[in-house]
Design the sequence.
């Protein structure tokens, strides 16, 4: 690793230096948890979104870049009808014909982002249909009768939904590993057995309490499958006295929509144990209770009639919520059972939230508001040591970038670009990296945009890559210039035609009267170039490349002891070399 001469004066400003009104302020960006901004305020800030944010401060020559790997994510052409509404369903005896475009058909959201879907689900929550006990049983019969499903299939999908919802809310971590699944004698218990298997494969450590086994091949098969995974079955009487000590999550799969009356032994006692768990004042240690379809012991329609029943933290309604779910006040209400066909939706007029992307579960009620200052992730990563990183920061960047691609991260080439104008005012936005080589980072944009104006006044810029799933971020700072026109030209024509037209339509960062303006202009251009002829690159569109003077590779670690390795340029014997230093987290 190149070691510098000690007399060198760094060309960058330390993040700890205070800003002066430099004529060419240099932007610096880093990801912070919102908590650090709210910590000193007397009243806690409560927001409903848990998002890291980008803080930007302003302080005071090139080769052809390597295009990012061809499979690197590209924005979807907004005009491509990649998600079509489902075709009208075949009419089945006893079911009304499906109305195409009926308002209650669940439409998948255009993007698979859970946050977007959660918002959509929240908006729809008020209108979600709740089923009576009779309708729930009738739907069950129809699914397994004229609609051709088998009980095994439905149970498998229901159990998978439960496991997926549990994993979404209680992410696998030291605090959320040990799961007790208490299974009842019917299909609700079967859902629990299936969920136990999926949770095992997701990495959790499930144990099962299944005191009244049903002697049918479906159930004994599920038990055998769990036994083959060495999942312990604990008799009810052998359950540990203090469930809080032994389990992080308890899945209540005792009774579903066929429950009547009051619970009989041994479930009366088991339910009582879950009730007393929610009463214990020691909230730090209380395991999360997740009820499958119905909180066991609740009246299927009336809910927790005398108020003394289970108070689950999470409810996973299956197929559609039952009436009792209206009384559920816990923080997490999910829908599972992504198998409801249009004949059922139409016949029962079901309004259900859309499932995001390929997910097996959908949040029904908005995620609870959180005190942002309490949000903190305990990062667990391999150590990032000076002896392990590459001497050249570009090589190190490419290594991490390739790992992000291999890990299947969505748009690993998305980066926050921070520019600063003449007055020292910074602005940030996400852009897509389109090329990187041993000297520069390249992206394309509109030369009339705000970032372009900023860059024309001040060529200093900062890039920030944030690979959340890998606990990594990379900061890059340097100066920016336009890429040669031929390069922009070449890249422009490699883009999908829709994106080319979009670039012509958008006079980026200018105020427009409405969305129709874009759509109209786009339509006209689409018609103009419908013969497939070459779409000329507008002169106001092209690339920029940043030549870095500083890199920082950050890797989140436990207890905030993060790794931060900074590469800065130093002159050594007349040559510029990269110098690596560790920064305190
Ligand atoms: N579309 C659907 O209808 C689907 C239903 N599924 C699951 O199936 C459940 C319904 O299953 P089941 O109809 O088998 O019924 P449950 O699992 O709700 O429970 C029925 C069993 O509990 C017993 N029981 C009822 N009341 C009792 C009491 N007071 N004390 C003690 N035991 C009592 C019954 O004798 C029977 O053995 C749903 O809630 C859901 O979890 C899913 O597996 C898949 C899809
Ligand atoms: K249940």
Sequence:
């Amino acid at each position: 690793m190149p070691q510098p001469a000690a007399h060198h004066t760094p060309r960058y400003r330390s993040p700890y230096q205070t800003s002066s009104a430099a004529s060419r302020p240099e932007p610096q960006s880093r990801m912070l948890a919102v908590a650090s901004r709210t910590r000193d305020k007397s009243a806690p800030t409560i927001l409903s979104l848990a998002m890291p944010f980008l803080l930007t401060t302003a302080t005071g020559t090139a080769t052809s870049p390597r295009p990012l790997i061809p499979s690197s994510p590209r924005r979807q052409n907004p005009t491509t009808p990649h998600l079509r509404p489902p075709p009208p369903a075949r009419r089945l005896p006893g079911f009304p014909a499906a109305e195409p475009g009926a308002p209650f058909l669940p439409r998948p959201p255009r993007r698979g982002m859970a946050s977007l879907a959660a918002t959509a689900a929240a908006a729809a929550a008020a209108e979600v249909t709740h089923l009576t006990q009779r309708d729930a049983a009738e739907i069950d019969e129809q699914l397994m009768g004229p609609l051709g499903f088998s009980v095994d299939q439905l149970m498998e999908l229901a159990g998978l939904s439960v496991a997926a919802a549990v994993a979404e809310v209680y992410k696998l971590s030291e605090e959320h590993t040990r799961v007790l699944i208490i299974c009842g004698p019917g299909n609700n218990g079967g859902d629990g057995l299936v969920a136990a298997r999926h949770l095992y494969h997701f990495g959790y450590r499930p144990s099962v309490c299944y005191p009244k086994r049903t002697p049918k091949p479906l159930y004994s098969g599920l038990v055998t499958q769990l036994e083959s995974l060495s999942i312990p079955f604990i008799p009810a009487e052998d359950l540990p006295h203090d469930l809080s000590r032994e389990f992080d999550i308890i899945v209540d799969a005792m009774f579903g929509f066929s429950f009547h009356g009051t619970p009989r032994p041994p479930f009366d006692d088991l339910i009582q144990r879950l009730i007393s768990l929610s009463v214990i004042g020691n909230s730090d240690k209380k395991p999360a209770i997740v009820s499958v379809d119905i909180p066991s012991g609740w009246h299927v329609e009336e809910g927790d009639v005398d108020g003394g029943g289970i108070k689950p933290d999470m409810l996973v309604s299956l197929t559609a919520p039952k009436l009792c779910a209206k009384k559920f006040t816990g923080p997490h209400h999910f829908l599972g059972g992504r198998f409801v066909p249009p004949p059922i939706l139409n016949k029962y007029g079901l309004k259900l939230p859309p499932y995001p992307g390929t997910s097996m579960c959908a949040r029904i009620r908005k995620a609870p508001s959180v005190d942002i200052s309490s949000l903190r992730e305990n990062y667990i990563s391999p150590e990032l040591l000076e002896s392990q990183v590459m001497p050249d920061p570009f090589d190190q960047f490419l290594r991490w970038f390739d790992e992000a691609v291999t890990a299947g991260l969505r748009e690993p080439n998305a980066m926050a670009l921070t520019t600063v104008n003449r007055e020292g005012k910074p602005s940030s936005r996400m852009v897509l990296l389109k090329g990187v080589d041993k000297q520069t980072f390249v992206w394309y944009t509109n030369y009339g945009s705000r970032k372009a104006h900023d860059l024309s006044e001040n060529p200093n810029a900062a890039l920030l890559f944030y690979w959340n799933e890998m606990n990594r971020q990379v900061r890059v700072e340097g100066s920016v210039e336009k890429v040669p026109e031929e390069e922009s030209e070449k890249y422009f024509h490699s883009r999908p035609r829709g994106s080319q037209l979009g670039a012509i339509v958008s006079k980026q960062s200018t105020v427009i009267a409405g969305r129709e303006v874009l759509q109209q202009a786009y339509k006209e251009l689409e018609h103009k170039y419908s013969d497939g002829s070459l779409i000329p690159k507008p002169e106001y569109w092209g690339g920029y490349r940043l030549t870095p003077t500083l890199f920082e590779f950050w890797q989140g670690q436990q207890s905030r002891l993060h790794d931060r390795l900074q590469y800065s340029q130093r002159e050594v014997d007349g040559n510029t070399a990269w110098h690596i230093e560790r920064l305190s987290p």
